[in-house]
Amino acid sequence: MWILWAVTLLWAASFSLIGEFLAGHVDGYIAVFIRMALALLLFLPLWRPRRLPVAKQAALAAIGAVQIGVMYLLLYHAFLYLSVAEVLLFTIFTPLYVTLIDDVIFQRKHLPLRWWLAAGLAVLGAAVIRFNTLSDDYLIGFLLIQGANLCFAAGQVCYKRLPLGNARNQMHVFALFFIGATIVTGAAMLSFANFDLQPSTSLQWTILLWLGLVASGVGYLAWNLGAKRVNTAQLATMNNMLIPAGLLVNFAFWGQDVNWLRLAIGAAILAGSVYLASRKPAA
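The chain above was modelled as a monomer; its predicted structure follows.
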Protein backbone atom coordinates (compact mmCIF):
# COMPACT_ATOMS: atom_id res chain seq x y z
CA MET A 1 0.00 0.00 0.00
CA TRP A 2 2.83 2.42 0.72
CA ILE A 3 3.70 2.50 -2.99
CA LEU A 4 0.17 3.60 -3.90
CA TRP A 5 0.20 6.26 -1.16
CA ALA A 6 3.55 7.61 -2.40
CA VAL A 7 2.36 7.80 -6.02
CA THR A 8 -0.87 9.48 -4.87
CA LEU A 9 1.14 12.28 -3.24
CA LEU A 10 3.38 12.53 -6.32
CA TRP A 11 0.41 12.84 -8.67
CA ALA A 12 -1.36 15.32 -6.37
CA ALA A 13 1.61 17.67 -6.61
CA SER A 14 1.80 17.13 -10.37
CA PHE A 15 -1.87 18.02 -10.95
CA SER A 16 -1.24 21.23 -9.07
CA LEU A 17 1.62 22.12 -11.41
CA ILE A 18 -0.57 21.44 -14.45
CA GLY A 19 -3.34 23.68 -13.15
CA GLU A 20 -1.03 26.53 -12.21
CA PHE A 21 1.46 26.62 -15.10
CA LEU A 22 0.27 24.59 -18.11
CA ALA A 23 -3.53 24.70 -18.31
CA GLY A 24 -4.58 27.39 -20.80
CA HIS A 25 -0.98 27.96 -21.90
CA VAL A 26 0.05 24.61 -23.41
CA ASP A 27 -2.39 22.51 -25.45
CA GLY A 28 -3.44 19.46 -23.44
CA TYR A 29 -2.88 16.97 -26.26
CA ILE A 30 0.61 18.30 -26.90
CA ALA A 31 1.43 18.20 -23.19
CA VAL A 32 0.22 14.61 -22.81
CA PHE A 33 2.14 13.41 -25.86
CA ILE A 34 5.34 15.05 -24.61
CA ARG A 35 4.82 13.37 -21.23
CA MET A 36 4.38 9.94 -22.81
CA ALA A 37 7.33 10.42 -25.17
CA LEU A 38 9.61 11.47 -22.31
CA ALA A 39 8.50 8.50 -20.21
CA LEU A 40 9.17 6.21 -23.16
CA LEU A 41 12.68 7.67 -23.54
CA LEU A 42 13.27 6.97 -19.84
CA PHE A 43 12.54 3.25 -20.24
CA LEU A 44 13.91 2.57 -23.72
CA PRO A 45 17.52 2.08 -22.50
CA LEU A 46 16.22 -0.52 -20.01
CA TRP A 47 14.08 -2.38 -22.53
CA ARG A 48 14.82 -6.07 -22.88
CA PRO A 49 12.22 -7.44 -25.34
CA ARG A 50 13.37 -11.04 -25.00
CA ARG A 51 12.20 -11.11 -21.38
CA LEU A 52 8.58 -11.44 -22.58
CA PRO A 53 6.83 -13.62 -25.17
CA VAL A 54 5.48 -11.69 -28.14
CA ALA A 55 1.86 -12.12 -27.03
CA LYS A 56 2.58 -10.58 -23.62
CA GLN A 57 4.54 -7.75 -25.25
CA ALA A 58 1.49 -6.91 -27.37
CA ALA A 59 -0.76 -7.14 -24.31
CA LEU A 60 1.42 -4.75 -22.30
CA ALA A 61 1.51 -2.22 -25.15
CA ALA A 62 -2.27 -2.48 -25.46
CA ILE A 63 -2.66 -1.88 -21.72
CA GLY A 64 -0.61 1.32 -21.98
CA ALA A 65 -2.60 2.43 -25.02
CA VAL A 66 -5.89 2.01 -23.15
CA GLN A 67 -4.94 2.93 -19.57
CA ILE A 68 -3.27 6.20 -20.56
CA GLY A 69 -3.71 6.81 -24.28
CA VAL A 70 -7.44 6.36 -24.81
CA MET A 71 -8.13 7.55 -21.26
CA TYR A 72 -6.47 10.93 -21.91
CA LEU A 73 -8.19 11.24 -25.28
CA LEU A 74 -11.63 10.86 -23.68
CA LEU A 75 -10.68 13.02 -20.71
CA TYR A 76 -9.57 16.01 -22.75
CA HIS A 77 -12.65 15.81 -24.97
CA ALA A 78 -14.79 15.90 -21.83
CA PHE A 79 -13.41 19.37 -21.00
CA LEU A 80 -15.33 20.66 -24.02
CA TYR A 81 -18.57 19.89 -22.18
CA LEU A 82 -17.73 20.08 -18.47
CA SER A 83 -16.21 22.41 -15.94
CA VAL A 84 -13.12 21.27 -14.02
CA ALA A 85 -15.28 20.67 -10.94
CA GLU A 86 -17.64 18.45 -12.94
CA VAL A 87 -14.73 16.47 -14.40
CA LEU A 88 -13.39 15.83 -10.90
CA LEU A 89 -16.83 14.84 -9.69
CA PHE A 90 -17.46 12.34 -12.48
CA THR A 91 -14.10 10.60 -11.99
CA ILE A 92 -15.20 9.29 -8.58
CA PHE A 93 -16.76 6.14 -10.04
CA THR A 94 -13.40 4.54 -10.95
CA PRO A 95 -13.28 2.34 -7.79
CA LEU A 96 -16.55 0.67 -8.79
CA TYR A 97 -15.22 -0.02 -12.28
CA VAL A 98 -12.01 -1.53 -10.92
CA THR A 99 -14.02 -3.86 -8.71
CA LEU A 100 -16.52 -4.73 -11.44
CA ILE A 101 -13.90 -5.47 -14.12
CA ASP A 102 -11.87 -7.67 -11.82
CA ASP A 103 -14.98 -9.54 -10.65
CA VAL A 104 -16.69 -10.11 -13.99
CA ILE A 105 -13.79 -10.47 -16.43
CA PHE A 106 -10.94 -11.97 -14.44
CA GLN A 107 -12.29 -13.61 -11.31
CA ARG A 108 -15.55 -14.86 -12.84
CA LYS A 109 -16.90 -15.11 -9.34
CA HIS A 110 -18.36 -12.80 -6.74
CA LEU A 111 -15.87 -10.69 -4.85
CA PRO A 112 -16.31 -10.38 -1.08
CA LEU A 113 -19.15 -8.06 -0.13
CA ARG A 114 -16.79 -5.93 1.97
CA TRP A 115 -14.74 -5.17 -1.18
CA TRP A 116 -17.84 -3.87 -2.96
CA LEU A 117 -18.74 -1.89 0.16
CA ALA A 118 -15.24 -0.42 0.29
CA ALA A 119 -15.48 0.68 -3.36
CA GLY A 120 -18.91 2.20 -2.71
CA LEU A 121 -17.60 4.10 0.30
CA ALA A 122 -14.73 5.44 -1.81
CA VAL A 123 -17.24 6.84 -4.29
CA LEU A 124 -19.35 8.34 -1.48
CA GLY A 125 -16.35 9.93 0.23
CA ALA A 126 -15.13 11.51 -3.01
CA ALA A 127 -18.65 12.75 -3.78
CA VAL A 128 -18.87 14.46 -0.38
CA ILE A 129 -15.66 16.31 -1.15
CA ARG A 130 -16.27 17.20 -4.80
CA PHE A 131 -20.03 17.43 -5.40
CA ASN A 132 -21.11 20.70 -7.03
CA THR A 133 -24.13 21.91 -8.98
CA LEU A 134 -24.11 20.47 -12.50
CA SER A 135 -24.41 22.48 -15.71
CA ASP A 136 -27.46 22.08 -17.93
CA ASP A 137 -25.60 20.20 -20.69
CA TYR A 138 -23.46 17.62 -18.92
CA LEU A 139 -24.59 14.24 -20.28
CA ILE A 140 -22.06 13.95 -23.13
CA GLY A 141 -19.25 14.99 -20.83
CA PHE A 142 -20.43 12.53 -18.20
CA LEU A 143 -20.34 9.67 -20.71
CA LEU A 144 -16.87 10.68 -21.93
CA ILE A 145 -15.55 10.71 -18.36
CA GLN A 146 -17.07 7.30 -17.65
CA GLY A 147 -15.29 6.00 -20.74
CA ALA A 148 -12.03 7.46 -19.40
CA ASN A 149 -12.71 5.92 -15.98
CA LEU A 150 -13.32 2.51 -17.57
CA CYS A 151 -10.09 2.74 -19.57
CA PHE A 152 -8.03 3.63 -16.51
CA ALA A 153 -9.71 0.96 -14.40
CA ALA A 154 -9.36 -1.72 -17.09
CA GLY A 155 -5.68 -0.89 -17.56
CA GLN A 156 -4.95 -1.24 -13.86
CA VAL A 157 -6.77 -4.55 -13.52
CA CYS A 158 -5.30 -6.00 -16.72
CA TYR A 159 -1.79 -5.05 -15.63
CA LYS A 160 -2.44 -6.55 -12.21
CA ARG A 161 -3.49 -9.85 -13.80
CA LEU A 162 -0.86 -10.02 -16.57
CA PRO A 163 2.07 -12.27 -15.51
CA LEU A 164 5.19 -10.17 -15.98
CA GLY A 165 7.64 -11.61 -13.47
CA ASN A 166 9.28 -9.76 -10.61
CA ALA A 167 9.68 -6.00 -10.24
CA ARG A 168 13.05 -5.96 -12.01
CA ASN A 169 11.66 -7.82 -14.99
CA GLN A 170 8.71 -5.43 -15.16
CA MET A 171 11.08 -2.46 -15.24
CA HIS A 172 12.90 -4.04 -18.21
CA VAL A 173 9.70 -4.42 -20.24
CA PHE A 174 7.78 -1.30 -19.15
CA ALA A 175 8.86 0.60 -22.28
CA LEU A 176 6.12 -1.35 -24.07
CA PHE A 177 3.51 0.29 -21.83
CA PHE A 178 4.60 3.73 -23.03
CA ILE A 179 5.01 2.62 -26.63
CA GLY A 180 1.27 1.95 -26.68
CA ALA A 181 0.49 5.19 -24.85
CA THR A 182 2.76 7.27 -27.10
CA ILE A 183 1.19 5.93 -30.29
CA VAL A 184 -2.35 6.77 -29.15
CA THR A 185 -1.54 10.19 -27.66
CA GLY A 186 0.55 11.03 -30.73
CA ALA A 187 -2.40 10.25 -33.00
CA ALA A 188 -4.65 12.34 -30.74
CA MET A 189 -2.22 15.26 -30.86
CA LEU A 190 -2.06 15.21 -34.66
CA SER A 191 -5.86 15.03 -34.86
CA PHE A 192 -6.99 17.51 -32.20
CA ALA A 193 -4.14 19.68 -30.89
CA ASN A 194 -3.90 23.45 -31.25
CA PHE A 195 -0.28 23.84 -32.31
CA ASP A 196 -0.38 27.55 -31.53
CA LEU A 197 -0.23 26.52 -27.87
CA GLN A 198 3.14 24.79 -27.73
CA PRO A 199 5.44 24.96 -24.69
CA SER A 200 7.57 28.05 -25.12
CA THR A 201 9.21 28.91 -21.78
CA SER A 202 11.92 27.20 -19.75
CA LEU A 203 9.49 26.86 -16.83
CA GLN A 204 6.93 25.04 -19.00
CA TRP A 205 9.58 22.66 -20.33
CA THR A 206 10.94 22.04 -16.82
CA ILE A 207 7.46 21.12 -15.61
CA LEU A 208 6.91 18.86 -18.64
CA LEU A 209 10.23 17.14 -17.95
CA TRP A 210 9.11 16.51 -14.36
CA LEU A 211 5.69 15.29 -15.49
CA GLY A 212 7.11 13.03 -18.19
CA LEU A 213 10.09 11.49 -16.43
CA VAL A 214 8.86 11.42 -12.83
CA ALA A 215 5.06 11.72 -12.60
CA SER A 216 4.37 9.63 -15.70
CA GLY A 217 7.50 7.49 -16.03
CA VAL A 218 8.29 6.60 -12.44
CA GLY A 219 4.70 7.19 -11.31
CA TYR A 220 2.90 4.77 -13.63
CA LEU A 221 5.53 2.07 -13.15
CA ALA A 222 5.27 2.40 -9.36
CA TRP A 223 1.46 2.50 -9.42
CA ASN A 224 1.20 -0.63 -11.53
CA LEU A 225 3.83 -2.40 -9.42
CA GLY A 226 1.80 -1.47 -6.36
CA ALA A 227 -1.38 -2.70 -8.01
CA LYS A 228 0.12 -6.20 -8.19
CA ARG A 229 0.82 -6.20 -4.45
CA VAL A 230 -2.61 -5.23 -3.09
CA ASN A 231 -6.05 -6.76 -3.32
CA THR A 232 -8.68 -5.44 -5.71
CA ALA A 233 -10.55 -3.44 -3.07
CA GLN A 234 -7.39 -1.67 -1.91
CA LEU A 235 -6.55 -0.77 -5.50
CA ALA A 236 -10.09 0.43 -6.12
CA THR A 237 -10.30 2.67 -3.06
CA MET A 238 -6.88 4.21 -3.62
CA ASN A 239 -8.07 5.54 -6.97
CA ASN A 240 -10.06 8.25 -5.16
CA MET A 241 -7.45 9.23 -2.56
CA LEU A 242 -5.99 11.63 -5.13
CA ILE A 243 -8.96 13.97 -4.58
CA PRO A 244 -8.29 14.98 -0.95
CA ALA A 245 -4.53 14.82 -1.53
CA GLY A 246 -4.83 17.19 -4.49
CA LEU A 247 -6.96 19.65 -2.52
CA LEU A 248 -4.46 19.71 0.34
CA VAL A 249 -1.54 20.31 -2.04
CA ASN A 250 -3.42 23.14 -3.76
CA PHE A 251 -4.14 24.74 -0.39
CA ALA A 252 -0.60 24.29 0.94
CA PHE A 253 1.24 25.65 -2.10
CA TRP A 254 -1.24 27.88 -3.90
CA GLY A 255 -3.62 28.99 -1.15
CA GLN A 256 -6.77 27.79 -2.93
CA ASP A 257 -9.97 27.73 -0.90
CA VAL A 258 -10.95 24.43 0.71
CA ASN A 259 -14.27 23.47 2.27
CA TRP A 260 -12.69 21.94 5.36
CA LEU A 261 -15.87 20.37 6.70
CA ARG A 262 -16.61 18.52 3.45
CA LEU A 263 -12.95 17.58 3.09
CA ALA A 264 -12.80 16.19 6.62
CA ILE A 265 -16.02 14.17 6.26
CA GLY A 266 -15.13 12.87 2.79
CA ALA A 267 -11.56 12.03 3.79
CA ALA A 268 -12.83 10.14 6.84
CA ILE A 269 -15.16 8.09 4.62
CA LEU A 270 -12.32 7.43 2.16
CA ALA A 271 -10.01 6.38 5.00
CA GLY A 272 -12.74 4.03 6.21
CA SER A 273 -13.02 2.52 2.76
CA VAL A 274 -9.26 1.87 2.61
CA TYR A 275 -9.34 0.35 6.11
CA LEU A 276 -12.27 -1.89 5.15
CA ALA A 277 -10.48 -2.97 1.96
CA SER A 278 -7.30 -3.75 3.90
CA ARG A 279 -8.91 -5.83 6.63
CA LYS A 280 -8.26 -9.53 6.48
CA PRO A 281 -11.36 -11.73 6.68
CA ALA A 282 -12.06 -13.42 9.98
CA ALA A 283 -10.78 -16.96 10.23
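Residues 71 and 138 are 18 Å apart (CA to CA).
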